[in-house]
Give the backbone structure.
Amino acid sequence: MSRADDDPRPAFEQLADTLREEIKNGALEPGQKLPSVRQLIEQYGFVSATVQKSLTRLRNEGWIFTTSRGSFVRDLDSPRGASAAPVTAAEFAELQAQLAALAERLQILEERLPDRADS
């Protein structure tokens, strides 16, 4: 698909609609990595800024998520839901810290438990 001259919508909306349809019809499956920006430029004939804006739109709508490895189709049936953003590195670090604190508290409680059983 290239920009349709008779379509009054901005080019980024046209591309976002095309990619959204590919996700809906299964051409792009959950977990699948999207083509790179360069590949999307070559495939659809849009400039980089248009491709980037289209990906941002899809990300904001919850259709895709982006990591350091690229953009991927979100699993719309996942328990986190279509609009849930992936866990960030900072959120993951906070969860790890909370888990470590809970493990430490549990260990303290377990160490005290035998003392109470003996009395």
